[in-house]
Amino acid sequence: MSPIRKIGVLTSGGDAPGMNAAIRAVVRVGIYHNLEVIGIKRGYTGLLEKDFLPMQNHSVSKIISLGGTILKSSRCPQFCESEVRKVAYHNMLEAGIDALAVIGGDGSFRGAHALHQEFGLPVVGIPGTIDNDIYGTDFTIGYDTAINTAISAIDKIRDTADSHNIIFFVEVMGRDAGFIGLSTSIATGAEATLIPEVESDIQALCDYLEYGRRKNKTSGIVIVAEGCRVGSATEVAAKVKEILPAYETRVTTLGHIQRGGSPSCSDRVLASVLGYGAVVALLDGLSDVMVGEINGEIVHTPFVKAIANHNALNRNWVKIAKILSM
Ligand code: F6P
Q: Would you say residue 1 has pLDDT above 80?
């Protein structure tokens, strides 16, 4: 295998706080090892449109504290087609890019895995998503910031809920995973939590809210994770209102504020360590793997495994959330 001289780095899928810290680490560790580093703009779209940006140490100055991604991101469904990936590979060959670091979620890793399978391109993944649903790492880049953003919003909602005796249904992100829902629920002392991993029942939720009322609870927060099986926060609130018409209810969807903002200390450190780990992995001849952190150690998980599996939610936390909400 010829030595790696020039690496590309891109961010793909939903942006997450800490992606910039990861870009910075890839660029600086690459340059430290005498590599050229090319930033690829707008994820895989930039590979197709040759939107390339040579990067120097100073290109990533002062970005560690910035949310979003300076390289911009996109979802690129056409990258599922092999003919499209061929164009991307030829564009990389033409630009002399001989390895790729992909910062994103499992959809982004699928694209990277295909590039490795079809063209033998050395590729490595760095898990960046607020959802924390990626197998092969304790935490994904962006998750810690997102849950802190969410709890500060929910704490504020709690003030209004208490002042006006309202039950608030607060929808949080997470796609098909309940990590954001469960953590924010425990951290804000929510009265109830609906997450995709656990069967939810509207009547049981109403019974529980009534039980709280009998114990003189006059307000409440119900966290509804967006992938939950009984519907969106708006739908859940409507169903509850049908059963408990006397309840004053409101719905707040936190939405994309959870994706933005300056990354937390944990996310900056995680992103820096994983960015470092990604470049070292490529130089060590590893490919088709995702770099993660488990119990404080850098670990490498083959893409096929990272894609086929999901981070498992700790079921004990569901019980803890329930007990603490009583
Ligand atoms: O994967 C991150 C995420 O924010 C999910 O939590 C959410 O389901 C999705 O992206 C929203 O994506 P978009 O911004 O494309 O609507």
A: no
- With contact defined as beta carbons under 8 Å apart, do 146 and 258 qualify? yes
Ligand 1 within 6 A of CB of 226: yes
pTM greater than 0.85: yes
Paired residues of 291 in beta bridges: 300
Residue having the nearest C-alpha atom to atom 7 of ligand 1: 175
- Choosing from 131, 133, 144, 288, the catalytic residue is 131
Place of tokens 């450190």: 269
Give the distance (Å) from ligand 1 centre to CA of residue 253: 13
Q: What is the pLDDT of residue 11?
A: 98
For residue 245, with 0-12 CB atoms within 10 Å meaning exposed, 13-18 middle and 19 or more buried, which class applies?
A: exposed
Spacing, Cα 175 to ligand 1 middle (Å)? 6
Give the number of residues written for the chain: 326
Q: Is the dihedral of CA 179, 301, 45, 128 positive or negative?
A: positive
Q: What are phi and psi of 19, to 5 degrees?
A: -60, -40
Answer whether 13's CB lies under 8 Å from 108's CB: yes
Neighbouring C-alpha atoms within 13 Å toward the C-beta of 101: 35
Neighbour count for residue 72 (Cβ, 10 Å): 17
pLDDT tens digits for 2-35? Answer: 799 999 999 999 999 999 999 999 999 999 999 9
Q: What is the mean pLDDT of residues 221-247?
A: 97
Tokens coding 70: 């300076």
Phi then psi for residue 278, to 5 deg, are: -65, -45
The 10s digit of each residue's pLDDT in 51-72 is 999 999 999 999 999 999 999 9
* Closest to 271 (Cα-Cα) out of 116, 145, 181: 145
Average pLDDT for 100-125: 97
pLDDT band, residue 232 (cuts 50/70/90): very high
SS3 206: helix
CB 320 within 8 A of CB 187: no
Q: How far apart are CA 289 and CA 10, in angstroms?
A: 16
